Each structure stands twice: as C-alpha cells, then as structure tokens.
Amino acid sequence: MATDVRLPQLGESTYEATIGRWLKSPGDRVERFEPLVELITDKVNVEMPSPVAGRLVEIVAQEGQTLPVGSVIARVEEEAPAQAQPEAPARGEAPAAGRLSPLVSRLVQEHGITPDELAQIRGTGTGGRITKQDVLSYVERRKQQAAAQPVPPPAAPAAPVAEERRVPLSPVRRTIAERLSRAKREVPHAYGVVEADVTDLVRWFDAHREAFQQQHGVRLTYTALFARAAVEALRAFPVVNAQWADDAIVFKPHVNLGIAVSVEDGLVVPVVHRAEEKSLVGLARELEDLTRRAREGKLTLEDVQGGTFTLTNPGVFGSVWSLPIVNYPQAAILATDAIVKRPVVRDDAIAIRSVMHLGLSFDHRVFDGAVAVQFLNHVKASLEAVDPVTR
After folding, report:
1. Regarding the domain delimited by 188-389, which CATH topology (the fold level of the hierarchy) does it fall under?
2. What pLDDT band is residue 179 in, cutting at 50, 70 and 90?
3. Domain range list for the chain
4. Local structure of 114: helix, strand or coil
C-alpha cells in the first residue's frame, strides 16, 4: 500500500516550504527516519526523514517548488513492520529510548550527543544497553577526532566584480527575504541599548578557557557566556520570552534559545531547547554541536523548531552597534557586539576598560521600553559580575 508523504509543519508560524533536493529517487528503498528530501524552511536547509520504511514509488513535488504544509510531496510503498526482536540493535541503528538509564540519558544530554551520534555507540551492557562508560568512551573519541582535524587556511579575499551581473536568488536567500520583510511589516519594532564593562569577564575568560577545554572537552566561547546571561535574564523577565497572538500574549514554559549562525548563503537559527536547564558546560557543548552541524548542512527539523528568543553575536565580525530584526513570531532578539578597549570614567578617573554594547530589538505590542531596559541591565549585571554566567 502506497503511503502519502506530506509536507510537515516546520514551525509555529511556517505554513509553506520549498523543496530543495531529493535525496532518494523513485525505486529506491528508504528506511523509516532516513533522510528523504531537503526542505528550505525558516532560514535553513533541513533534511526531512521518511515517516515509513519501504520503496519510494513517486515524487510528487519537484525541486524548487513551494508548497503549503500538508501537501503530498511523495508516495512510499510501505512494507509490513518486522517482528520486534529482543536482541541488541546492530551498529548504526538508534537504540530505543527505554534502553537508556537515567544516568546515561543525563550524560547524553550533557555532552550534546545527537540521535545520529547515539546510533553509532555500541552498547556493551546487558542486552546491548548503552552504559556510562560507552558514552564517555565515545565522547573521548569525538574529542580526539576534533583535535585531529586540520585548521583550514584563511579564506582568500573575494575578487572584484568586473561587470554588472544578476545572480538568481537561492531558496534560502528568498526565504530569508520573505521572512524578514514580513517581520518588519507586522511587528512594531522598538529598540534598547546598554553598555557593559566586561573587563573582569575578559580576564576570567583568558585565565580559564584552556583549563575549561581540557576539563570538559569543549571549547569555551563568549557566545556561550552571553547565552547563559541571556537565559538568566529571560527567567527573570518571562514576558521577553513570550509571543504575540492577536488576542493574547502567550507565555512560554521553557527558554528555547535560537542562536544565529552565519553560513555560506545567509543565516540559520538552530535552537537550544530548554536552555534554562543547562549549565554553562551544557550550553557550550550544544552550541558547538549545533554550530558545526549548521555549517555542514546537517541540521534536523527539530533543531530549528520551537525557538522562543534569539541571540545573535555580530561582534565576532567586528560590529560595535547592532539592532537586528525580530525573528518573528518571537518577541525579541538580543545582539551582542564586539568587546573593545576604550577609555572610560571610573571613580572620577579615566581608565582603559573592555566594553561592549548589548542591543535588544523587541515587539512593542508584547512589552514596553521599561521592561526592555530592565532585561538588558540584567544581562549587563550578569556579565559584569562574571560569577552568575560561569556556573
């Protein structure tokens, strides 16, 4: 029996998507959850897994075609499910969720191990269960593999354009344009900026980053520190984590933190789900994993869904004052700009300090300027105090 494969809901406010590239051809066998097609969604290419196992018999939607959610895009001749077997899963198969102990589940989350990576871990426990040592051994191997990767050479400067030329919009670029245009049309933007003296944070960062990486096996970044401070401020001001719904303001139970990542064709915004439950180490691990997979084009649908607030760090490119566009339907986006040294007045004397700007763009329907500035000052206080963001 042929099963209709339909375009899934890709986000709370996403009602259509563009077919990017088919990963299977008619006649090919496809496993359940195996990547079937690339979809162009909100600022990102994502791979849609097949909902069933069987043989792809028909491709209905062609590459480049934009369709509404729920449209039939392909048909798969479904096979009868195999009888469940008690033995351990073969290498490459994802273990059932009931096979992980609470301790192993916590380790998997803490080290940012994705379902694809989990499928690579061979369980050595009873019945093929994955043990604590299996996870720790995998993390160590992953760390060694990352250290062995060669450092790419710096990119060559772009050649000057000799003559005028037209470059057709890619699906990703077109999606970015449409989404941001909609955000500017529908959201009454307002802005707030504060300046933070992060001299002590810079000293702490320089003194601890090597030991942090050696101890935890993950690189410490300023983005992780900014994310930690933002999450603490969102817990203190939950309305900044809310959304406008025409007849109500919807408060979200968790902080699902979107992180803007620059890629070749624009920006992608993978999401750290339940960020309020993660330590600085946990945030650093997940940010490293999401950033890597975003630049490799390996994000999943889940990775880009459900964001409630976005953090963008244009400071890595040298920006000193940024006011980004709100990532609709979220209510706000925080920009963290470059840390620069400049003379400031402290205790009636001029001193050289490390300072940065924190810029918040927000939906004025959801909250007002007073809340925006209080939120920014909470982030500022966390970064200036150092300790609250390093727990």
Report:
1. Chloramphenicol Acetyltransferase (3.30.559)
2. confident
3. 2-78, 97-147, 188-389
4. coil
d(CA 70, CA 82): 28
| Structure tokens given for 292 | 């890597």
- On the question of pLDDT at 86 being above 50, the answer is no
Alpha helices in 149-255 (DSSP H): 171-186, 199-216, 222-236
Strand, coil or helix: 151:
coil
Residue among 289, 368, 378, 387 flagged as catalytic? 368
H-run or E-run covering 374: helix 369-385
Max distance between CA atoms of the chain, in angstroms, equals 80
Topology classification of domain 97-147: Dihydrolipoamide Transferase (4.10.320)
Q: For the structural domain made of 2-78, what CATH number should be given?
A: 2.40.50.100
Note if 216 is an active site residue. no
Dihedral (C-alpha) 325, 329, 330, 331: value to the nearest 10 degrees? 80
What are the tens digits of pLDDT across the range 262-283?
Answer: 887 778 899 999 999 999 999 9
* Three-class secondary structure of residue 23 per DSSP: coil
How many CB atoms are located within 10 Å of the residue 173 CB?
Answer: 15
pLDDT of residue 43: 52
What would the mean pLDDT of 123-152 be, rounded to a whole number? 75
Per DSSP, 254 falls in state S
Q: Which of 62, 84, 86, 60 has its CA nearest to residue 73?
A: 60
DSSP single-letter state for residue 76: E
| Mean pLDDT for the stretch of residues 288-312 | 88
Residues 234-263 have pLDDT tens digits of 999 999 999 999 899 999 999 999 999 988
Residue 94: pLDDT band with limits 50, 70, 90: very low
Helix, strand, coil content of the chain in percent (nearest 5): 35, 25, 40
Is 42 known to be catalytic? no
Secondary structure element (H or E) that encloses residue 309, with its range: strand 309-312
Distance, CA of 75 to CA of 113 (rounded, Å): 32
Catalytic residue among 42, 289, 364, 378: 364
In a 3-state reduction of DSSP, which class is residue 340?
A: strand
Whether residue 329 has a cis bond before it, omega within 30° of 0 = yes
Instruction: Give the pLDDT band (50/70/90) at residue 207.
Output: very high
